[in-house]
Structure formats: structure tokens, C-alpha cells
Amino acid sequence: MELKLELPGALPLTAEEFAAVPVVEGARIELEEGSLVVMAVAQMMWHTLTARRIEAWFQAQGIFAAREVGVVVGPRSVPAPDVTAFHKPVTDLRRSQFPAADVRCVVEVVSPESTKRDRTLKPLLYAEAGIPEFWLVEEHPDLPSDAVIQQYELPRTAAGAAYAVARTITLSELEGGQ
């Protein structure tokens, strides 16, 4: 696949300039310290269905959630979590990115091509931006249709921003109301 983009400015881009970058079919583009990070969209059906199930769970709890929208975590950084849950419903549906202050939880569903970024880099960015919850979702080792969710919370009294594990639960347990 050849990727050609008309950028709204010179690199490094700001979050505002990044909002004008066109959508590219079959690619996922994020902004990291002003540089574009281009990835293939999730290749595994498990990844897609798991993100969809988590989004549906949030919505069933009355929490507005969406998949793969940008979250502005800094002036030149806009990751796109697999699922983003908001403090209140989003009314401007034409936006492609939202300030971290609007976000209550971000969810990263780990896939082979994103393991290091999902486990290491993104939690740091989200914590520094003050997002209260971060969920890291991985394949269940024994049940191919399930997932293991590590739910992290940002302690209010933390010196520096770092998540602490609140609980570990399977997706099927979460959906079952436990």
C-alpha cells in the first residue's frame, strides 16, 4: 500500500494541524511528539470484536464511548485509543479528537504490532494527561473468544503520574456484571 498525504503544515505538527490530516482507508494514523505514526488497522478479528464488546459494555452502563478517536494528551501528541469513554456525551460528532480532560477511560486492545506502545508508551502519555482510568486488554491464554482486562486507576495523591492496577477481570466476567 502506498501512502500519500497532503499535510496541513510542516513536521512536526501540532494537535490542531493534525486534526486536518485526511483519513486514509486501511491505515491508522496517530500523532506522537509532532510526528506521524502510521499503522495498519487491526488485522485480527479478535481485536475488532473485543473493542466492539468493550464499547458496547460502556454504552450499556450509560457511559458515552467511541472507538478509535483521537485524544489530545499534549500539544503535539494525539493517540487514538481502541476505545475511549467520556465523562459526558459528545455532542459535536464531526470532531476527530478530544481533549484528555473530556475522557474518563481509555482502552488499548493489544495486538502483535502494537504490544510495546500499548503496554509501555501509551499508559505514560495517558497518565501524564490525567486520564483517570486506563484498561489494557489482552487475549485470554485459554479462551480464544475472551480477553483479560487489567484495569488501572490514576491515584489522586500520586507524586508524578503513574497508573496503579485496580483489578484484573476477564471480558466475559465484565459483561456478566461482576
From TrEMBL:
Q: Name the Pfam families on file.
A: Uma2
Putative restriction endonuclease domain location is: 16-144
Question: By what name is this protein known?
Answer: Putative restriction endonuclease domain-containing protein
Taxonomic source organism: Phytohabitans suffuscus
InterPro entries from the entry?
Nuclease_put_TT1808, Restrct_endonuc-II-like, Uma2
Coiled-coil positions:
none
Q: Which Gene3D superfamilies match?
A: tt1808, chain A
